[in-house]
Amino acid sequence: MQRLIPTLRRDQVAEGLISVINTLQICAKEISYRLHQGELAGVLGSTLDENIQGETQKKLDVLANQLLKDILLENKFVRAVASEEEEGIVEGFDDGRYLVAFDPLDGSSNIDINSMVGTIFSVLPTPEDGRSGSEMFLQPGREQVMAGYVLYGPSTMLVFTTGKGVRVFTLDTTVGEFLLTDENVEIPADTCEFAINMSNYRHWQPEMRTYIDDLLAGDTGPRCKNFNMRWIAAMVADVHRVLCRGGLFTYPWDKRKPGKPYKLRLMYEGNPMAYLVEQAGGRAHSGEQRILDIQPEHIHQRIGVILGSANEVDTCLSYLQGSH
Ligand code: AHG
Ligand code: MN
Ligand code: MN
Ligand code: MN
């Protein structure tokens, strides 16, 4: 089986990007090790702090964030990093070619129940127009040069794209290396599976309710087929399932918090997952536009997310546009 770096060389990925992914995989192994030690490593539970998103931070949110930040900022190709857990960006090397945005620990509520979590990353080129500070990160997702995630599940997997398809690597813990286990992920265009947090039903817009009602109606309803539902409560694990066997994943607009109708973050969750899904032949939409075309206004911006099997995303959008 192919190792990570030789695969990247074969794909003619730029040396700087290879260096960044190498740094990320070192972090991934460290986080994976600590997670698998669980309570034995004393890393479970919450801190007393709140992050910029208004969420209580778990010890592992803080630990993973610190690890990623420290090690990425030692890489000479990294100009700056932005994190879900940090209010502002943190600068690295002045002549670094890349910006790295990350969600250090996705699915934090799963940590204490020994369930799936991940790390999501998005790499953008450093703009050459003299912009500075967090403005540098405000580029549409289509500008990403690499994006992916690490899934800490029963096995630890590194899944990423550099724009040449989606590659999957699995951590071989006996040798401590990521080995290529799927060269080219493809999401089937049709599906009978969806993922949404159903407990928010009452908060959705009526068109989204109608779409879900019709999925639930099964083969005697307007969709004429039965749908299955899954919700892992970690986007990284739900998207991984979509990449493996298709499906529709959504965290749609809801009216729980006036003025804050979305949950997922564009830079750390929406863009990297949209890039992967599109590279695997699927679709990723905010409900208003293609996610990768959104011009970000600030680094912690939140958006609606509807992604997965192309035909099902299109069907969902046709409901949202009021054609049902
Ligand atoms: P994070 O743990 O990085 O803050 O992200 C959690 C996100 C996402 O991973 C997941 O799909 C969603 O929140 C789960 O939301 P619910 O708790 O509403 O199910
Ligand atoms: Mn969080
Ligand atoms: Mn997250
Ligand atoms: Mn997180």
List keywords for this structure.
binds 2,5-anhydro-1,6-di-O-phosphono-D-glucitol, 2 domains, 17 strands, Fructose-1,6-bisphosphatase class 1, binds manganese (II) ion, globular, 5-stranded mixed sheet, 8-stranded mixed sheet, 324 residues, carbohydrate metabolism, 7 helices, D-Maltodextrin-Binding Protein, domain 2, Fructose-1,6-Bisphosphatase, Chain A, domain 1, 28% helix, alpha+beta
Describe the structure.
The chain has 2 domains: 2-184, Fructose-1,6-Bisphosphatase, Chain A, domain 1 (2-Layer Sandwich), CATH 3.30.540.10; 193-321, D-Maltodextrin-Binding Protein, domain 2, CATH 3.40.190.80. Helices cover 28% and strands 25% of the residues. It has 7 helices and 17 strands. The strands form 4 sheets. Strands 4-3-5-6-7-8-9-10 form an 8-stranded mixed sheet, with helices on both faces. Strand 8 (156-161) and strand 9 form a beta hairpin. The radius of gyration is 19 Å and the shape is globular. The N and C termini lie far apart (49 Å). The model has no long low-confidence stretch (mean pLDDT 96). Bound molecules: 2,5-anhydro-1,6-di-O-phosphono-D-glucitol (AHG) and manganese (II) ion (MN) (3 copies). One manganese (II) ion (MN) is lined by residues 61, 84, 103, 105-106, 108. Its EC number is 3.1.3.11.
Briefly summarize what is shown.
The protein has 324 residues and is an alpha+beta fold.
Strand content: 15-25%
Q: List the secondary-structure elements in sequence, H or E.
A: HHEEHEEEEEEEEEHEHEEHEEEH
Uncertain segments? none
Bound molecules: 2,5-anhydro-1,6-di-O-phosphono-D-glucitol, manganese (II) ion
- From the alpha-carbon coordinates, what is the Rg to the nearest angstrom? 19 Å
Look at the structure and name the CATH superfamily of the largest domain: Fructose-1,6-Bisphosphatase, subunit A, domain 1
Task: Report strand order across the widest sheet.
Answer: 4-3-5-6-7-8-9-10
Q: Globular, elongated, flat, extended or rod-shaped: what is the shape?
A: globular
Q: Find the structural class using helix and strand composition.
A: alpha+beta
Number of domains: 2
CATH architecture of the largest domain: 2-Layer Sandwich
Biggest sheet layout? 8 strands, mixed
InterPro entries: FBPase_C_dom (IPR044015), FBPase_class-1 (IPR000146), FBPase_N (IPR033391), FBPtase (IPR028343)
Binding site for Mg(2+) 2: 103, 106, 269
Domain Fructose-1-6-bisphosphatase class I N-terminal: 14-183
Protein name: Fructose-1,6-bisphosphatase class 1
